[in-house]
Write a structure and sequence with these properties.
The protein has 260 residues and is mostly helical. It has a domain of 181 residues. The protein is 66% helix and 5% strand. The chain has eight helices and six strands; from the N terminus they run H-H-E-E-E-H-H-H-H-E-E-E-H-H. It has a two-stranded antiparallel ribbon with strand order 1-4. Strands 2-3 form a two-stranded antiparallel ribbon. A two-stranded antiparallel sheet has the order 5-6. The chain is globular, with a radius of gyration of 19 Å.
Length: 260
């Protein structure tokens, strides 16, 4: 199987090039988010991605929710390939560098109505509850774990900043949609090449553009985590008076009326 495409090959062919291009643009363009504030936010997201996603993958892989083609990975730690851990680092970088180009922002106070906070928390927890229910059926096992895993993070993010996120919803949509669509394409290619295989037993059988709906939702949810997390981090530092100094190499984008 010398001609078998590998997981590391996926990184080299599809993740590193756009990361390098976007990194070059971020350094060159004056209107890109840059500096200690956004980069430290990215660093925090990488750490959280590794810590929070590691138990998730190591729970589902040994069950057989997905597996990897013969000869496609170098080695595994616990039940997860080294390349998967590398992906936990590369995806936040890929998505964040695009976010730095979009720069969603609005002049909003950190004060949020209590009802908005409660609604945000309730929405995230409702997703987790739906996930718990879906675990009872083999065909929705992957979907159930995905919702159960995603719900608490979304509850935290929406509970803290739902009002602000809604104020910048249009630019936020652009920041989330582009890397999500790209990773859908990469995932679809990797599945076609046999780099990894998604179980028919533990999935619903529904697909989006030929991609299992569970995989599509995974990339959507994880990009939500990254974009919302970094955006709110920059917002908080800006409001407490640190962000403007930390991002001095790139001026802040004026609030767009389209985001109101």
């Amino acid at each position: 199987m010398t001609d078998q495409f590998t997981y590391f090959g996926i990184h080299l062919a599809f993740l590193l090039p756009p990361i390098l291009i976007q990194g070059w643009l971020a350094i060159r363009r004056d209107r890109t988010w840059w500096g200690v504030c956004p980069l430290s936010g990215l660093g925090i997201m990488i750490v959280l991605a590794i810590v929070y996603t590691t138990p998730f993958t190591n729970r589902l892989i040994p069950v057989g929710v997905w597996w990897y083609g013969e000869g496609t990975v170098l080695a595994t730690v616990w039940h997860t390939p080294l390349e998967e851990y590398l992906f936990f680092v590369l995806q936040p970088i890929l998505t964040a560098l695009w976010l730095f180009q979009v720069r969603p922002s609005a002049d909003r106070s950190l004060a949020i109505p209590r009802t908005h906070r409660l609604l945000g928390v309730a929405s995230g927890l409702a997703i987790a509850v739906v996930g718990w229910v879906l675990l009872g059926d083999t065909a929705t096992y992957y979907l159930g774990w995905l919702f159960l895993w995603a719900g608490p993070v979304l509850a935290l993010q929406w509970g803290f900043g739902s009002t602000y996120l809604w104020a910048i919803r249009r630019s936020l949509l652009v920041a989330i949609a582009v890397p999500t669509l790209y990773l859908w394409l990469v995932d679809r290619i990797a599945i076609e090449l046999g780099v990894w295989v998604i179980s028919d037993t533990y999935t619903t059988g529904h697909a989006l553009f030929g991609l299992p709906i569970e995989e599509a939702l995974f990339f959507l949810v994880t990009n939500l985590f990254i974009v919302q997390g970094i955006t709110m981090y920059v917002w908080v530092l800006d409001r407490i008076g640190s962000g403007s100094a930390w991002t001095s190499t790139a001026p802040r984008v004026p609030t767009s009326s389209d985001d109101r």
